[in-house]
Amino acid sequence: MEIDIFKNRSFSSCMHEAFKFITTNFQDLIKKTWFPILLCSFLTSFLIYSQLPNKQLTEWSTAHIMPTIYIGLLLIISVITSFIYYIASFLKFFDGFSLKSHFKKVSVFTIFAILVAIVAIVACMYGGIAIAAKMNLRHLQFTLIISLVALIVMIISAPISYSFFKYNNNKCNFIQAIKSIKLGFKHWGITTATLFLSSLITGIIISIIAIPVWILFITQAVSQLGALDGDPLGTPVYFTVLLIGTNTIINAITFFAIYWLLAALYFTFGSIEAQELEKSTHLIK
Question: Among 90, 166, 192, 237, which residue has the fewest nearby CB atoms (within 10 Å)?
Fold first, then answer.
């Protein structure tokens, strides 16, 4: 499909174009991306379920430590792989490049993002502990660490997203994409505005839609915590199926809503590229 990506737009125009793209191609987008969305939603539901209070799972995992570790790692890897497939499927639909190419590039960038996240978290942990110790605020260590992590994520998310789309649009190789983060910082304002507002709107909508699953989560927690004290569960036999099924549906809606965010960031990348081209053409003249 023909999409005028490389056009100078404001951040509000990028968000509007993304919404127009999603609504105009709604049926085709559902037909071509329903499987990766459903797969990612289903696996994510299982991962979330495994983290909820559960007496039987807790007893089994305590008695089978190594199998629990292997199953947990397998589930995490499966969720990450399905998420890469989900992102790659949307990018293929959006720009027309091959799924194989996008899957490879999203995988590379995901590994890079995970490494950056690990370094940032470790640095913030030591930094937060050091600051808390120096200022005699030991009881605020966790708050400081979370605040530092949030600050770093907010600062680097915009330039990294620009490099991500530049890399996936075949504009450069991975090394060049990492170097282009510098240009991403140069246009930090428009990317951050698009990312923040899109995330805020998407988050509000998802929070309202997710109310039923939050009720089920609370029911699961209360029931299982009571079971740990010897009380009967008090939930029907089909409750687990209902919980995972409802969570899968909510996750699917969430992942589809995120497509708007991805499209808005892609249009923002195109706007930045158009601005840089206009500047270089003006300088040549």
Answer: 237
